[in-house]
Specification:
This protein has 1 helix and 4 strands; from the N terminus they run E-E-E-E-H. The protein is an alpha+beta fold. A hairpin with a 5-residue loop joins strand 2 (44-47) and strand 3 (53-56).
Length: 137
């Protein structure tokens, strides 16, 4: 599937089972993250084998208690330059441009989808840990 130039708005995982007390990582790979925000919120619906649906869609608000079903949030930070390289925001000597092929842009859609999958995996892990804590009383 080629999603180049299209925004991914939904990812659905089906057919798998996550047993009580376990979690599953869902990995997502992205090509480019936005530069005009410091966080991304991923609303998620979790459906159990008995048909129960938990909506992890509530956005946290400053100066408010954490919602019962918070949406997963990915906080974005500036990249850190590796040791021995130019400081962030400082250009090194220009490099010759790399050859660009039409396939370079095909990773953008799956890349965004990859990010969403990874964040949702973190959300599932948080949910399982929360359920385990609640079960312990």
């Amino acid at each position: 599937m080629n999603l180049a130039g299209e925004a991914v708005s939904q990812i659905t995982w089906t057919g798998g089972t996550i047993k009580p007390g376990q979690y599953q990582d869902f990995q997502v790979t992205v090509d480019q993250l936005p530069h005009d925000t410091d966080q991304l919120t991923f609303k998620a619906l979790q459906t159990y084998s008995d048909g129960k649906v938990v909506r992890w869609i509530d956005e946290a608000r400053q100066s408010q208690p954490e919602p019962d079903n918070p949406a997963p949030v990915l906080h974005l930070t500036q990249a850190v330059a590796p040791p021995g390289s130019a400081a962030p925001g400082v250009s090194a000597a220009p490099k010759a441009p790399a050859a660009v092929s039409s396939s370079d842009s095909t990773a953008r859609g799956p890349g965004i989808a990859g990010l969403v999958v990874g964040v949702l995996g973190l959300a599932v892990a948080a949910i399982v840990l929360r359920d385990r804590r609640a079960a312990r009383g």
